[in-house]
Amino acid sequence: QQPGVTAGDTRLFLRAIEGVGTGFEFAMFFNATERRLLCLLQMGPYLEGHPGLTHGGAIATVIDATLGICALSVAGKVVTANLSIDYLVPVPLGTVLLVEGCAERTEGRKLFLGGHVRSADGDTVYARAT
């Protein structure tokens, strides 16, 4: 822990942008039986890459956070060793998204997860990740 920083001073990286609606606005729901986490979110204007579109790094961040919190919920203290993302369709700013992460298998100390980013209605898959 850093000097002068207490546990109450920390926050999830996604909450680092101040201002309601400007960055990542999300809620996460974990299903322990299915080892699955669902994140409902909306990308704010501070996350713009190409005009009108969400920056790929912001999409990677929310995927990493979703898979990471799923892994934490399943296995306890973890770190990301590898993150592979296939970007399929650009995400317009302001889009309401569902990001799903699922713990698929365990090999020794390694936990393997998969997930995807899709539109709230489920019709469009924007990205897949492992």
Please estimate the helix content.
Answer: 10-25%
Radius of gyration from the CA trace? 15 Å
Proportion of strand residues? 35-45%
Tally of distinct domains: 1
Q: Please name the CATH topology.
A: Thiol Ester Dehydrase, Chain A
| Helix count from the secondary structure assignment | 1
Per CATH, the class reads Alpha Beta
Quaternary state reads single chain
Structural class: alpha+beta
Distance between the termini: 29 Å
Instruction: Give helix and strand order, one letter per element, not per position.
Output: EEHEEEE
Categorize the overall geometry.
globular
Would you tell me the overall average pLDDT?
Answer: 89
CATH architecture verdict: Roll
- Major sheet, described briefly? 6 strands, antiparallel
Number of strands: 6
Q: What do these coordinates show?
A:
- Pfam families: 4HBT.
- It catalyses: dodecanoyl-CoA + H2O = dodecanoate + CoA + H(+); tetradecanoyl-CoA + H2O = tetradecanoate + CoA + H(+); decanoyl-CoA + H2O = decanoate + CoA + H(+); (5Z,8Z,11Z,14Z)-eicosatetraenoyl-CoA + H2O = (5Z,8Z,11Z,14Z)-eicosatetraenoate + CoA + H(+).
- Belongs to the THEM4/THEM5 thioesterase family.
- Keywords: Apoptosis, Cell membrane, Cell projection, Cytoplasm, Fatty acid metabolism, Hydrolase, Lipid metabolism, Membrane, Mitochondrion, Mitochondrion inner membrane, Transit peptide.
- This is Acyl-coenzyme A thioesterase THEM4.
- The protein has a 6-stranded antiparallel β-sheet, covered by helices on one side.
- It has a single domain, classed as Thiol Ester Dehydrase, Chain A (Roll).
- It is α+β, with helices and mostly antiparallel strands.
- Helix content is 15%, strand content 35%.
- The protein is globular, with a radius of gyration of 15 Å.
- The model has no long low-confidence stretch (mean pLDDT 89).
